[in-house]
Amino acid sequence: MPERIKLRNLKKLGSLNLGVSQFEIIGSVVKIVGLSLEVKGVIAPVGSRCQIQSGNGSSVFADIVGFRDGLSILQALGGVDGIEPNSEVVVVSRNKSLSFSEALVGCVIDPMGNVLIGNDVERDISIDIDRQPISISDRGVINTRFETGVKVIDMLLPLGFGQRIGLFAGTGVGKSVMMGMITRFSDADIVIVGLIGERGREVSEFAQETLSEEARKKTIIVAAPADYSPILRMQGAEVATAIAEHYRDKGLNVLLLMDSVTRYAQAQREVALSAGEAPATKGYPASVFAKLPFLIERAGAAKCGSITAIYTVLIEGDDTNDPIGDAARGVLDGHIVLSRKRAESGIYPAVDVPKSISRLSKDLLSDSDFKKIRSITALYSILDENADMISLGMIDRGKNLLLDKAMGAADRITDLVRQDINVSYTIKNSDDMRDNLIDDLNLVF
């Protein structure tokens, strides 16, 4: 039973709407471990937001993440300094929504909707943060190519409006640079970028240096840096998705870039473990593998409008088979792998073509163009397979015609994917370059 019921007039927290009934159930803090709190007397569902009155007069906000032994388990949004035994806890929200304005385009906001970079504006729209994915019957067909402006993607890994794809990369292989290129060059109506768990310096650099002035005019960045609590890091990904959904509902073609879905999963792991959930695969509780597809399924094509989503997946030690990578691959419509070996060779974007795939290529291309992509991919594959033998001069010419052609045009094959970060290519430019190489090598497809 609740300890007491109190009449209270609540205010807003940041730009999150927290209005609930005036009659609020009051509980009290029993225990704190790290950012996790155990509270008695609070009756509210998982996901509800609570306000805790600290001993120094300030307020701490926390979300209910579970229940144990008759107590509610809360995860603080920030620090817990000042909270004392029996500190007062009140539920301030059961359903979170974001106060939003389309005039925030060009700004960087945090998961609460507060402006970090740019000028704040009056909010006139309420956006539900925890929306359900669009139903199967409301999904649109993906049959129109999406232009990224990055030629290796457009010519060999074509994407469609509404496709969800993973960008698998280790550290230092050009992931952020590629994200910046796609943000600047793509033909999306609006771009929503979620920077989850990144260093604060990288958020500032991406917003003020990586993006051009023209790109900023159609971009909103939601930032939840590494020093934010796990609850806020998770909320950052959800807010970015919710804003993208808002524009899709208006019939626009939205590009959602999220860096990274791995740190979203790590934040969920922290929350789940603090709530007492048992670890499973490599320390990740089962709830992580339920939350991840739920988030990704919110993107995609609707009957009118689309969210084309690119989720970065961080791979430790360049191992693409870690649990989060496996889980993401299972629900995404393809993956682009960035190669450390190519990056170290000075080939940027460092896309490993044979290990990458767009699962919708056949739906987006004619049979002829699809076969052309397979022919070019075969060139990269055979060069990779024989790289050591080639470097040692141990290849006998004339025994493998495809290998002979690939070796003779190795520089052209490399240059086919190499691209200056300030130069964009149309789909037609990219396809013509691919076709010219096929014609010159007289490849059979």
From TrEMBL:
Subcellular location per UniProt equals: Cytoplasm
SUPFAM superfamilies, per the entry: P-loop containing nucleoside triphosphate hydrolases (SSF52540)
Query: What's the main place this protein lives?
Result: cytoplasm
AAA+ ATPase domain sequence ranges: 161-342
For the keyword Transport, the answer is yes
List the Gene Ontology MF annotations in alphabetical order. ATP binding; ATP hydrolysis activity; protein-exporting ATPase activity; proton-transporting ATP synthase activity, rotational mechanism
The EC designation for this entry is 7.4.2.8
List the catalytic activities from the record.
Answer: ATP + H2O + cellular proteinSide 1 = ADP + phosphate + cellular proteinSide 2
Q: Which top EC class is named for this enzyme in its record?
A: translocase
The molecule here is called protein-secreting ATPase
